[in-house]
Specification:
By secondary structure, the protein is of the alpha/beta class. It is built from seven helices and nine strands. About 3% of the residues have low confidence.
């Protein structure tokens, strides 16, 4: 029997699965109908890249402690306003899929990575057939240090990228793995962001108007900031036009408008401007 924690057992219970089940791996890897549960998928924003000949696959695992262990060790209040609480990611089927994939990764790491390699090969081949650049974002809703698995080293033809709150000095991405630091309200986060920007890295900032509570207001705040040309002494670029972060000019803020519950955030994670 695999080793689990009590919090993981609670997550397994949501799936109707017990840690002592002999077919635990299969129940995490396959759907109830017996279909292989795909690790990689797509979303609306990533699909925008196809207009620029970039075919992106994205993986949505459980954010923070949703699956019983923390996939976002440097998460702050962003956990309460995570993007997984918007769009299709809020459905019960999406929740079950995230927890299943996350515990498959945690409890059966080698099997998970074997399937991931298979899907990356398929994705790379499909992109080449379509005449597009293959790209992948494994931390669609998590913040795992993927370079430790070595998986991107095996696919030099795929451009990998992610947002991360992990201090960049703790990351060692290869040449085909681009990271954008994500600003939070945590102590020292702004200082880190400014330091990284000065060194030629990029940092993402989520914005809302000073007193805004709606998506319309956050979009207007983002547009105004992009039009202004700079934030905290560094140039800015919109991060909502597409998801191709690895083509952003270096040393720029990536401005994102607040979405979902984040439109009402007042913790400091969302920067109030104007």
């Amino acid at each position: 029997m695999v080793r689990t924690t009590e919090s993981m057992n609670v997550a397994l219970g949501l799936l109707g699965v017990r840690p002592e089940d002999r077919d635990l791996r299969d129940r995490l890897q396959f759907t109830k109908s017996g279909r292989l549960r795909r690790l990689l998928g797509n979303n609306y924003k990533c699909s925008k890249g196809e207009g620029r000949d970039v075919l992106t696959a994205v993986m949505h695992l459980s954010p923070s402690t949703e699956a019983g262990w923390n996939t976002c060790p440097f998460s702050t209040s962003c956990a309460s306003v995570c993007i997984m609480k918007t769009g299709q990611l809020v459905t019960n089927s999406s929740l079950r899929a995230r927890i299943s994939k996350t515990l498959f990764y945690k409890l059966f790491r080698e099997d998970f990575l074997a399937q991931l390699r298979m899907e990356l090969r398929q994705h790379e081949h499909l992109a080449r057939v379509k005449g597009m650049l293959p790209a992948v974002r494994l931390n669609g809703t998590s913040d795992i240090v993927w370079e430790k698995t070595g998986v991107f080293d095996e696919f030099p033809g795929i451009q990998a990228y992610d947002y991360t709150k992990v201090p960049l000095e703790r990351r060692t991405p290869g040449s085909n793995y681009h990271l954008t630091y994500s600003l939070s309200e945590a102590r020292g986060s702004m200082d880190r962001a400014l330091e990284y920007l000065g060194a030629g890295h990029n940092a993402a900032v989520v914005v809302q108007s000073k007193d805004g509570t709606t998506r319309k207001e956050s979009k207007a705040a983002s547009a105004a900031l992009v039009d202004s040309g700079s934030f905290m002494g560094f140039p800015v670029v919109s991060g909502d036009e597409d998801d191709i972060r690895f083509w952003d000019p270096k040393g720029h803020w990536v401005v994102l408008y607040a979405k979902g519950p984040a439109v009402r955030d007042t913790t400091g994670f969302v920067q109030r401007i104007g």
